[in-house]
Design a protein that fits this description.
The protein has 260 residues and is an alpha/beta fold. Helices cover 37% and strands 27% of the residues. The protein contains nine helices and ten strands. It has a six-stranded mixed beta sheet with strand order 6-7-8-3-9-10, with helices on both faces. A four-stranded antiparallel beta sheet has the order 2-1-4-5. The protein is globular and about 50 Å long.
Amino acid sequence: MNLLEVQHLSKRFTDRISLFRKQDFYAIKDATFSLDHQETLAIIGANGAGKSTLAKMLVGMTEPTSGTIFFKGKKLQFGDNAFRSKKIRMIFQDPNDAFDPNYNIGQILDAPLRLATNLSEEQRNERIFRTLKLVGMYPEHALIHIKETSSSQRHRVALARALILNPEIIIFDDSLSALDFSVKSQLTNLMLTLQARLGLSYIYIGQNLGLIKHISDKLIVMDNGEIVEYGYTKNILLNPQHPITTRLVENHFGGTVQYA
């Protein structure tokens, strides 16, 4: 049984193009794929290809028009936030937009625990301190105001908040793209270490094919809301079949992908 199974998932929106006329368009059309335990699936495509809409359907933020999502064989329903928030977590591209600027780190990490668990204050604090250690921070950091943290620390707090409910899947929505090389390398290594240690599965949405080549097992290529290629990352990068994939590979690698 796959950890996550997506079958024929679609999302249709309606645009009003004039006073008396509307037009439907598909942000996602007939997406089918799966994710296994401790596997990393990457999703690439041009801006507007539907990547973020797909991610938001997986975490329950956007209601699908049609199709089904299964978690360990259980069919997920839109609105099942109490269940889904503990199993599938998402880290957005810019953590600055995801944090209440009036909170300290401890309050940020405590919020999902208060909403989704029945843990006592002592148990919540213990979970917070343990999770901070997991992402390379100290328990004392819980008292630091989020506005006083560095970019690297904010990304670690975003990761800690994703981990705090002990999920099995974390979705990264291009969350490393804006970082400098040193910080990006540190956080990438941390992601891989946590995946091995905790048995996590990842879905990584982004454009950096060098990073995706390094971290992902499988790859989805999207264009205009549709999956145009899906398979093992190495196979797709070495032998792209769709013009979109070919262009992305050529732009990043100069046309030649090297695997050891």
